[in-house]
Amino acid sequence: MEIASYLLIAFVGVLCGFINILAGSGSLISLPVLMGLGLSPHMANATNRIGILLQNMVGSASFAKQRVLPLKEGLVLSIPASIGSIVGAYLAVDANESIIRWTIVGLLVFMFFVVIYSPDKWLRPKPDAPMVIRFRDYIIFTAIGFYGGFIQAGLGYFLLAGLVLSIGNDLITANSLKVFLAFVLTIFALAIFFYNGQVNLPLGISLGIGNMVGGWLGAKYSVRWGAKVIRYFLLGMLLFSVLYMILFQM
Question: Which residues lie below 8 Å from residue 50, measured CB to CB, with a gap of 6+?
Answer without folding.
Answer: 190, 199, 201, 204, 205, 207, 208
